[in-house]
Structure formats: structure tokens, C-alpha cells
């Protein structure tokens, strides 16, 4: 392992980290802007042009607020909760292929922090650890509302993780790999997985909403019932970390959706661009294409938030266990039949 | 419900189209300090304590306005007029302190109706109570409420001219 490699990877990691943070920051701004526009308002526009400095102002405000500790025997866990939520939210971005590669300084720089061959399992693992942040925080708050929120978040995430994993299996049967890089490469041209696995995409999308605790599945923090849910007792930057983690999660899940189903960094005419404009330009365009897809999904998250009201808790569980899981199993069976159609036909004697 | 209705997907897509339409509609926001909502011609706001033709304060601190105020926004303290202050106050009693809490006032105009001396009235002024950082700044004392002397004199001149 030479030093150039370490420098290269460090630069990529820092860039991805900064990108995630900036996107999470500006998602809060975008959320407020989109909310305002969908409600015929203008939204924040006083801090900087179009309110672009609003996230900075919000961050400053978070830092300057009193750090409140509830009367809890678990001060340590109370602090660990948001820390886990934040770190898991940032860890997932490590395996996402942000682009193919750049050719700089005589070496190929892969635009991905690390290309492990079990990327998808890694993401599932890290995302399920993220629940602990919410659970520990809600439990350590020593507050009934927080506990209710935490319990809801935990059960919701557990039940939707199943449907999410099952919907993935159909896709994995088709791609035959768990590496996100491989999956991106396979979708070159317009071979996007969404055209082959629309049902899988739909289930994954719904589960992604549930996993990120977004409306219509934001039962863990529904204001009308639980005040703030698991972050009721939090203040200052610890509260900020929870909110930040939520937006970082939204960004990452949008990225995963784009990579798995919408071709990742691929865009129509990419092969032509590599030939005529060179590797660097084409791949920077690829990164931009991925970025646009991600922003589209983030917008979709916000759009849905202001369209669909929150589910009731039993409806949520019904949808997860009685509809999505059977649907994804059916999807697996159909995919299996289509993949093995030749063998089946031979077996039946055609 | 039919199968497609039970899926809810179509309904959700329809709902999404309704919300996206609002993204492009005209925004109703009024950018307040720069842009002001048009007021009704009968609008009355911003109280004023009147002076008479000779520039003396009308208010005699009877307390009827404070009594009639549904928001309990008015406080006052009465004082006796000393010799030599006849050019300042019309009657023997006057309001030493007269305060209206603008955070409580609902601009109903009942104080104006209650006043037997025609002392307090709501003006045509379109100025709204400006934003402040401290609550104390919203308590308007006599310095802000009493009609300026030159205005009173000008009114007298106008009256005499007619």
C-alpha cells in the first residue's frame, strides 16, 4: 500500500464526508423551501439570497442553545444515542460508487471510498445499527413519550427491514452480485434495474420511507401524539445530531435508490461521452447524473411528505407484514421463474 | 372497493399531482416590512391621547378606558394638577403615567368609546407596532401616545381658519 493510495483514499473519504454533511445541511433548507412552495408560500428568504445561509443560522442556533439533561440515570447513554445515529448515518456513504473513475496524476482514482464485495449487506447492517441510536436515546431520556417513540421506531424498522431485504433478494438474483460498483456497471446504457424490477423498486421505496422515518411513516416522532418522539428530551446540538442524521439518512437512501434502480452514475450516451470527451469529463458528468438522481429522490421524499398524511400504527404494521412481505416473496418467485425459464421448460419436456 | 382502489397507489399518484400543481401557483406571501397588506378604509390603529385647542391634555385619568379594555392593556396613574400647570392639563386631575401594552391591545376601540373626555382615540395611522427585541419596548408610555404639541396647534389653526 503506497502513500499515494492512502492520500487518494483520504481525499475521496473527506470529500464524501463533506458532501454528505453539506447535503444534509441543505436538505433542511430544501425541506423548508419545498414545504413552503407546496403550500403556496415562499419559505426562508432572509438569511442570504433565497435564504441560502439559513442552515448556517440554524446550526449556530443549535450550538448556542442550552444543553439540557433530563433527570435520567443514564447520562452516558443519553449522549451515546445521537452519536450512534449520526455515525451510522455517515458510515453508509462509504460504499456508494459516486462515479466510475477519474484519470488524474497518472493514476486511476476510483470515486468510491471502498468497493467491498458485500456492500449491500454492509449497508443493511449499518442501517439496522442506526435503530440503536434512536432506541438508546429514547430509552435513556426517561420520558414516556420518548420511550413510545423509540419502541415505535424499533418495531417499525424491524418489520420494514424484512420487506426491504426480501425486495432486494429479487434484484440480487438478477444482478448476481452484492457489490454496488458491480451493480452500477451492469446498468450501463439504459439497462436500469427499475425497468426489470418495478415491483422490487416500489417495495424498496416504501421501505426506504419507513427506514428513514419520513412521512407517511414518521410514527416515531409524530408531533401530534408523541411531542417529538425519541428526541423530545433532547436540546442543543444533540437534537441537531438527530435531525442531521435523519437528513443524512435521507441523502444516503436516495443515493442507494439511485444506484440500485436508476443506474447509479450511468447516463444515456455515457459510452459515447467517454470516447469523445475523455474519461474525466464523462465521469464527472456521471457524478452529476447521480447527483441529479439523488436530488430528485430527495425532492420526492419532501413532495410525499406534504401529500400523504401519517399512517395509523396498525395500518403501518398491516402494510409491512401483510402486504409488502408477501408481495416481495411473490416478486422473488416470479423473478426466479423468469431467470430459470429455460431449465423449467426443459424439465417440463418442451 | 375494487382491487385498484384498494391498492391506493392511484390515489397517491393523484394526490402527488395535486401537490405538485401548488409548486407553480402564485405565492400568497406578503413580504411584510417591504410590502404592506392594503388596509381597509375604515382601519383604525395606533392610539393617541388628544390635546384640546390650547394644547392641554384632555385626559383626566378617570380610568374608564382601563376598565372597558377587554384585553386589560391600559394602566394609568392619576396625579393632581399643581398651580402653574394649567396650560398643560385641562382638568384638575391628569394621568401622570399612561401606558398601553401593545402586545395585549386588540385594537377594538372600546377605550375610545368609553372615554368621557374625548381624550383617547384610535388614529388612521397605517403604522403597525414595529418588532422589538424586548417586551418592555412594547409598552407605550405617554411619550409615544400623547399628541405632539405642534399637531395640536396646527389643528387649532385649521379650526380657527374654518
Supply the key terms:
A: 350 residues, mainly alpha, B: 162 residues, alpha+beta, two-stranded antiparallel sheet, 6 helices, 29% helix, elongated
Could you give a quick summary of the protein structure above?
Chain A has about 350 residues and is mostly helical.
Provide an overview of this structure.
The complex is a heterodimer of chains A (350) and B (162). With 350 residues, chain A is mostly helical. Chain A has helices spanning 3-38, 54-64, 75-91, 119-140, 144-175, 180-186, 193-196, 198-211, 223-226, 236-261, 270-277, 279-305, 313-339, 341-348; strands at residues 101-104, 107-110. A two-stranded antiparallel ribbon of chain A has the order 1-2. The termini of chain A are far apart. Chain B is an alpha+beta fold and 162 residues long. In chain B, 29% of the residues lie in helices and 17% in strands. Chain B has helices at residues 3-7, 9-23, 64-68, 110-114, 142-145, 149-161; strands at residues 45-49, 74-80, 93-101, 120-123, 139-140. In chain B, the strands form two sheets. In chain B, strands 2-3-5 form a three-stranded antiparallel beta sheet. In chain B, strands 1-4 form a two-stranded antiparallel sheet. The longest helix of chain B has 15 residues, at 9-23. The A-B interface holds A 34, 37-42, 45, 303-304, 306-308 and B 12, 15-16, 18-20, 22-23, 25-29, 31.
